């Protein structure tokens, strides 16, 4: 009888400890989910995001974790697509019992994941999702537990419009967009509003869908309209198809886009002459960027065994991890209500710039303009908010 009691007490204690650990409570490990599109239309986004986040996790663990607790990553392939992303969110929240998520990457997937995470008081830090609807609901109310490491599309669109008019002297533009993609739609709207307000003229606007591979009908209209610039704020997989077909059609107007162009798989030959807005440039000579690029290259190699250069997704995922872990440290707790309060007060110097949050949990920070030229992507300029 006595022996039985002792054993059952031990069993109870063991259950209590593991329950505490799995809830990310004090004493145990801190589980952090990384939801990244490792497969699907934009796999380079997933690989960079995972690797940037893991670099931050490894650095913190090497220093002893957060307040003595080790960080344990749980990586899920969320595919840049709402349904698989929401399924991955259910898996990590309901089964793995994580309290913290880094991800998703694509705004269209991040919006429904944010809604679920917020309803469960799970903190979600999207490194890269720039659509406004990620951190605020349809009534404009901030989602208390949702943050991001990147600027938002109203700013990104304005930066592109200003650059098109003031630097490229492009007074006419043609917009191509996929209405079903929250990111593409929001960025196209932001560009159009800022461009026309500053005196630019939209000479054509055409929709396609995410499944299209033949853009000849739209490109014939572009050729007719003869714009000074074509604005194409989509991801690199679509940009590769469209710019290749445009070159074949003899269209010489430069294409311009947003952060979605950022990929080692961007076809720099097809997109030659193009420009895009982005979050950071690995050519930045500030010590924070130089150190990050060096450490990342030492850890990750390309197919030829050469050090990988971190793209914006890797940089933002690294910043996202550091923001989250610094907030947990500052809160002195893994209680997500305390951690979200610590995040709203944070002042963090990241690789992608200095981060403090506005009332809608959006960082206010600079953008860079990059130029696709001679088979490479080169830094053009920085634009402050
Ligand atoms: N901003 C994009 C989105 O919201 C994601 C992205 C960010 C892609 C940075 C590439 C680089 O969907």
The CATH architecture of the largest domain is 3-Layer(aba) Sandwich
Calculate the terminal CA-CA distance, rounded to whole Å: 71 Å
CATH class categorisation of the largest domain: Alpha Beta
Unreliable runs: 1-25
Q: What's the gyration radius in Å?
A: 22 Å
Q: How would you spell out the order of helices and strands? A: HEHEHEHEEHEHEHEHEEHHHEEEE
| Biggest sheet features | 7 strands, mixed
Tell me the helix content. 40-55%
> What is the overall silhouette?
globular
Q: How many domain units?
A: 2
Number of helices: 11
> Which sequence of strands runs across the widest sheet?
7-6-8-9-10-13-14
Portion in beta strands: 15-25%
Structural class: alpha/beta
Question: Which fold name fills CATH's third level, the topology of the largest domain?
Answer: Rossmann fold
Name the bound molecules: phenylalanine
The tally of beta strands, per DSSP, is: 14
The CATH fourth-level homologous superfamily of the largest domain: Response regulator
Q: What would the average pLDDT be, to the nearest integer?
A: 94
């Amino acid at each position: 009888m006595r022996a039985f009691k002792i054993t059952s007490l031990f069993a109870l204690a063991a259950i209590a400890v593991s329950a505490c650990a799995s809830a990310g409570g004090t004493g145990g490990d801190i589980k952090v989910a990384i939801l990244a599109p490792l497969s699907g239309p934009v796999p380079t986004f997933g690989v960079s995001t995972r690797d940037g986040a893991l670099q931050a996790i490894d650095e913190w663990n090497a220093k002893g974790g957060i307040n003595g607790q080790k960080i344990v990553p749980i990586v899920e392939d969320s595919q840049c697509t709402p349904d698989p992303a929401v399924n991955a969110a259910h898996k990590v929240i309901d089964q793995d019992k994580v309290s913290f998520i880094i991800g998703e990457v694509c705004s269209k997937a991040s919006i429904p994941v944010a809604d679920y995470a917020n309803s469960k008081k799970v903190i979600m830090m999207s490194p890269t999702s720039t659509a406004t609807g990620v951190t605020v609901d349809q009534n404009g109310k901030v989602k208390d537990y949702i943050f991001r490491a990147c600027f938002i599309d109203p700013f990104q669109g304005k930066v592109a419009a200003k650059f098109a008019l003031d630097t490229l002297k492009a007074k006419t533009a043609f917009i191509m967009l996929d209405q079903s993609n929250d990111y593409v739609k929001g960025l196209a709207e932001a560009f159009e509003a800022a461009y026309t307000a500053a005196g630019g003229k939209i000479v054509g606007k055409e929709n396609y869908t995410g499944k299209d591979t033949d853009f000849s009908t739209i490109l014939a209209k572009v050729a007719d309209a003869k714009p000074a610039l074509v604005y194409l704020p989509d991801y690199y997989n679509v940009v590769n198809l469209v710019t290749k077909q445009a070159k074949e059609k003899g269209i010489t107007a430069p294409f311009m886009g947003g952060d979605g162009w950022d990929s080692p798989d961007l076809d720099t030959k097809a997109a030659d002459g193009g420009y895009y807005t982005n979050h950071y440039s690995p050519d930045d000579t500030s010590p924070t960027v130089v150190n990050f690029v060096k450490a990342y290259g030492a850890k990750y190699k390309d197919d030829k065994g050469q050090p990988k250069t971190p793209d914006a997704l890797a940089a933002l995922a690294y910043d996202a991890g550091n923001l989250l872990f610094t907030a947990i440290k500052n809160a002195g707790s893994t209680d997500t209500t305390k951690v979200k309060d610590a995040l709203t007060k944070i002042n963090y110097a990241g690789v992608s710039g200095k981060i403090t949050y506005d009332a809608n949990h959006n960082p206010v920070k600079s953008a860079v303009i990059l130029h696709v030229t001679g088979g490479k992507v080169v830094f053009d300029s920085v634009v402050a908010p």
